[in-house]
């Protein structure tokens, strides 16, 4: 079953075109990797999917689970099952992880007519999830991401993903900043939480090493605002060996090589 | 974000009431027009007062338009006495019969709660809190109703006496003006926290003189919306060595409201080893709102530590989107971030039930404003 359909997506920031006719389909049960040079528009794609203000869609469409995603407010997209793992998770002084996540989960549950979790129920869930990702439960009490190391922030993103248990995750360079052990733990976490027949993942990454743990079904190259090449897992290995320059004339022009 | 539109308002009325002129520097942000308008408010029905008393032991004073409602009050250790007028421009209007809490050496009183209900027009009430050496007290005051409520409170703390004072302005309309004058003996401690979370205009006017090794906190949060204007103008003076003071104020302004924070710390020539901190921060919920900040340091001693910071900003849009992307609707995300912004000011309240009540008032304000 097709979960996400992006057709001819054009988006701009401050009047500057960034996505220039991007098309992509992701089926339930699949994990797709998106690779591509710096500045190609990978994070922009994530933000457009999440509905970040200032990212204006000028053409094309995004359909998620049969509904027009662009019609939904960011929080409604979350409630519909979308999760955006940030390349740079945001620090929120004065708001604890626990408060933030409980508010988030209960808001999502509320919009699905599920009853809210009590403080105790939530804490139990959060502690379990933190433990599975080898994050110190004490960090749940700290303000969101404040003073967390780069790797701790990424791990915290995965704890959040485990707690809200989304249908579809866009993970933007979740592997960057992770040490070797953390990479394995996070990779296992993605598989555990998301590798299910009714779920799907868009994994944005620069390196093969995360893909060693989380085997992609499809690999796409995003360059200059478009998907310029798609293939199986072997495409990532080829890119790792030969770089983006070797992909052929179309990509070379797009990459500016 | 300019003030000019309001500056000319009703120029003749302050003279009529004999109010300070906004031409004077210390009064330049004062909303005397709103004060006069409040004084002229037609009578309104008396607001419910019961809900404003917290579930605490001790004295409960209910003042309706500045007059004690004996039926609904429990005086405990509080007495009514005659007060002479001070010389403060607004405070001097509050004279005559008012309340007094006097504690002897080493005494510790149950919390004193004062609820002020205004029902239109103007009302004035003087008060004093006098603690002898080592005495300990907690005073919580709440303003509700509408009208011009004017207060003058004199605080005198003996050696090592401690006073926790929390004041919340919840009037639905009109104006509240407070004049606080405190004098701290050696090693005495005064923690005053103010919350402006109603729809009335306000001016909190304070002067604290800190003695040797004394500790003073004067701070709080002013939340303004609509066309409301609230301000504080407080001055902490370190007269003796080794004192410590913190002035931590937060202002949140929505719509076309104006919040102004003026805080001064003054360190006398021989008040060495003074540690003074000032933190004034404003948050604009809309760009049409205004926050004025005026931190002032006047330091005449050479061996002192004084830190001050003053910033005005808006909610972090990245944090807002991050929260929305996790499923939190935008108004709720704004409320959470705004609450976090004022939290450190309200967290200075040591008593948990009082702190929680003030936090709930701030939450209620946010629910209305966002
Ligand atoms: N606020 C902005 N204003 C103008 N240009 C922007 C803005 N934000 C991003 N861009 C530009 O959009 C382009 C795409 O950025 P994006 O962050 O999507 O790249 P990316 O593929 O994620 O790169 P990386 O691999 O380095 O993370 C870049 O050229 C970037 O400079
Ligand atoms: Mg990126």
UniProtKB/TrEMBL annotation, chain A:
<dbReference type="GO" id="GO:0005524">
    <property type="term" value="F:ATP binding"/>
</dbReference>
<dbReference type="GO" id="GO:0016887">
    <property type="term" value="F:ATP hydrolysis activity"/>
</dbReference>
<dbReference type="InterPro" id="IPR010230">
    <property type="entry name" value="FeS-cluster_ATPase_SufC"/>
</dbReference>
<keyword id="KW-0547">Nucleotide-binding</keyword>
<feature type="domain" description="ABC transporter">
    <location>
        <begin position="4"/>
        <end position="249"/>
    </location>
</feature>
<comment type="similarity">
    <text>Belongs to the ABC transporter superfamily. Ycf16 family.</text>
</comment>
<keyword id="KW-0067">ATP-binding</keyword>
<dbReference type="InterPro" id="IPR027417">
    <property type="entry name" value="P-loop_NTPase"/>
</dbReference>
<dbReference type="InterPro" id="IPR003439">
    <property type="entry name" value="ABC_transporter-like_ATP-bd"/>
</dbReference>
<protein>
    <submittedName>
        <fullName>Fe-S cluster assembly ATP-binding protein</fullName>
    </submittedName>
</protein>
<dbReference type="Pfam" id="PF00005">
    <property type="entry name" value="ABC_tran"/>
</dbReference>
TrEMBL record, chain B:
<dbReference type="InterPro" id="IPR000825">
    <property type="entry name" value="SUF_FeS_clus_asmbl_SufBD_core"/>
</dbReference>
<dbReference type="GO" id="GO:0016226">
    <property type="term" value="P:iron-sulfur cluster assembly"/>
</dbReference>
<feature type="domain" description="SUF system FeS cluster assembly SufBD core">
    <location>
        <begin position="129"/>
        <end position="341"/>
    </location>
</feature>
<dbReference type="InterPro" id="IPR037284">
    <property type="entry name" value="SUF_FeS_clus_asmbl_SufBD_sf"/>
</dbReference>
<dbReference type="Pfam" id="PF01458">
    <property type="entry name" value="SUFBD_core"/>
</dbReference>
<dbReference type="InterPro" id="IPR055346">
    <property type="entry name" value="Fe-S_cluster_assembly_SufBD"/>
</dbReference>
<protein>
    <submittedName>
        <fullName>Fe-S cluster assembly protein SufD</fullName>
    </submittedName>
</protein>
